[in-house]
Amino acid sequence: MNNSVSGAARLLGAGLRALLVLTVLCGVLYPLAVTGIAQALFRDRANGSEITGRDGEVVGSALIGQRYDLPKKDPDDADEAARPDLRWFQPRPSAGLGSNSVNTQYALLVSGATNKAADNPDLVKAVEDAKAAVVADNTTATYAVKPSDVPADAVTSSGSGLDPHISPAYAELQVHRVAERNGLPVDRVERLVADHTEGRTLGFLGEPRVNVLRLNVALKSLTAGG
Prior knowledge:
By secondary structure, the protein is mainly alpha-helical. The chain folds into two domains: 1-47; 50-72 and 83-223, no CATH class. The chain contains seven helices and seven strands; from the N terminus they run H-H-E-E-E-E-H-E-H-H-H-E-E-H. It has helices at 2-41, 43-46, 121-138, 168-173, 175-182, 186-195, 212-223; strands at 50-52, 58-61, 98-99, 109-110, 165-166, 197-198, 209-211. The strands form three sheets. Strands 5-7-6 form a three-stranded antiparallel sheet. A two-stranded antiparallel ribbon has the order 1-2. A two-stranded antiparallel sheet has the order 3-4. Helix 5 (175-182) packs across helix 6 (186-195). The mean pLDDT is 86.
């Protein structure tokens, strides 16, 4: 009996010591080491790839797209349609975003694709409506946009619905409208887009792209005389 109790006590003690050692290693030392390496070598990415404006205030993340809309006429009207603020470059549609219906206590948004087939009537209508809006919004007194000019990313959402980038073609399509709305020369806005066009990753992965938030931060700085 005593041997059984003694053996159980030794096993329990060994288990507790192992638990303590593993807790310190895996729960304290390893997270501290990983966090330290991340902060030392990849500080920007480790902190969420935050982007700051002219005043040093964080305005968003380079990894998550956001809308640029006019304020609602009635802030309490949840059904009022969003109206794009045409002074700014607009992102691709965020049709993949939907309200969280699981826990309605919080007004959360979930990311995801529409999961609709290419011939789905609702999707076809959404694309047609989006194309008409892009043509109307970006046609100016000196620049006419044709439906054939509208790139695919201007009328479709990404798989996550949170894509922070648009194609150079969509950015260039918006140049004349942005220039007119902000009283800027077209060639100056074209240079702004060119300066913020990123090439393929490692020279061959993905497609050239423009981060809309970075572009609009630079545009704000330009319109403010910065």
